Amino acid sequence: MVNEVRVASEEWGFFQVINHGIPSSVLDEMIEGIHLFNEQDLELKKELYSRDREKKVKRSTIEYIKHMKRLGETLFELLSEALGLRPDHLGSIRCCKGSSLHSHYYPPCPQPELTLGVRKHADPGILTLLLQNNISGLQVLHNDQWFDVRPTRGGLVVNIGDLLQVLSNDKFKSVKHRAIANHVGPRITVPCFFLGHASLLEKPFGPIKELISEANPPRYNEFLLKDYVAKFLSSSLDKKPPIDYYKL
Ligand SMILES: O=C(O)CCC(=O)C(=O)O
Ligand SMILES: [Fe+2]
Questions:
Q1: Whose CA is nearest to atom 9 of ligand 1?
Q2: Does a structural domain hold residue 247?
Q3: Predicted local confidence at residue 237, as pLDDT
Q4: Atom of ligand 1 nearest to the CA of 177
Q5: Is the CB of 104 under 6 A from ligand 1?
Q6: Atom of ligand 1 minimally distant from the CA of 106
Q7: For ligand 1, what atom is nearest to the CA of residue 191?
Q8: Is the CB of 176 under 6 A from ligand 1?
Q9: What is the model's pTM?
Q10: What range defines the domain where residue 49 resides?
Q11: Around ion ligand 2, which residues have CB less than 5 A away?
């Protein structure tokens, strides 16, 4: 398992987990909840609409988030081992904290060739766990070619984010991906982003010291996560990714 995680993370920047032990009813209810929420009357949804980051539309996602955190902890143990570190290494720097749950609802598109669901990007955080309903659309870039990541019933996609690429000193590669539009739908996806604990914002962030040696010098300057977040928020997805500012 550790070797599979290592190879997938180094070469592809993503993998899928199926035997995660999360009841399929929890995943199905999450998809159904987002489906129902989005198909409510427009006037009802308008009342909840806001682009203010401080305002949060809250639904009952507590059980789902608990499962994501538990799975995240296990994955961070495997990823630590895959880096040759103690299993608790990534957990001890509070990678698994600061999770943020989002949802996407892509309606059926009459002319999918003219648009995209989400533009090409790598997730800026540490790790993402993505739940998809049964409609394809996610593609990952590998060796300059786009590959479909078809939904697997009960499966969750795990994306390496830019910050894990930095922590691993480029041993793990973040995965460039996009979502294409579809004639059929709706396509529903639920990314859970692990961004690291808020206390990391003020501390220097960079490649894990134990991974650095004369033969493997740091590939990034240390930086403050709060500056990184500010850079991310002030740019758009297709612009220069904020980690590029810190590359050596
Ligand atoms: O909906 C998808 O398949 C991908 C969404 C995504 O990449 C994101 O939210 O970062
Ligand atoms: Fe993404």
A1: 191
A2: no
A3: 59
A4: 7
A5: yes
A6: 1
A7: 9
A8: no
A9: 0.93
A10: 2-202
A11: 123
ipTM for this model:
0.99
CATH of the domain at 193: 2.60.120.330
Q: Is residue 145 part of a domain?
A: yes
Position 46 scores a pLDDT of: 82
Task: Encode 138-165 in three state secondary structure.
Answer: EEEEECCEEEECCCCCCCEEEEECHHHH
User: What pLDDT, on a 0 to 100 scale, did the predictor assign at position 48?
Assistant: 78
Hey, what are 146's tokens? 């786009």
pLDDT at 96: 85
Q: What is the mean pLDDT of residues 30-53?
A: 86
Residue bearing the CA closest to ligand 1, atom 3 = 138
Atom of ligand 1 nearest to the CA of 128: 10
161 lines ligand 1 (CB under 6 A): no
The answer to whether residue 129 sits within a structural domain is yes
- Residue 233 domain-assigned? no
Residue pair 132/189 in contact (Cβ under 8 Å)? The answer is yes
Please list the alpha-helical segments (H only) found in 49-102: 62-82, 89-92
Q: Is the pLDDT of residue 60 over 70?
A: no
From ligand 2's centre to the CA of 125, what distance in Å? 10
Tokens of 178: 């996009």
Q: pLDDT-derived band of residue 45, with 50, 70 and 90 as boundaries? A: confident
Taking each helix axis from N to C end, the angle separating 2-11 and 62-82, rounded to the nearest 10 degrees, works out to 90
- Contact between residue 118 and residue 132 where contact means Cβ atoms under 8 Å apart: no
Q: What is the mean pLDDT of the chain?
A: 92
pLDDT for residue 37 is more than 70: yes
What total of structural domains would you count in the chain?
1
How far is ligand 2, taken at its centre, from the CA of residue 123, in Å? 5
- Report which ligand 1 atom has the smallest distance to the Cα of 117: 1
Widest pairwise Cα distance in the chain: 61
- Does residue 57 surpass a pLDDT of 70? no
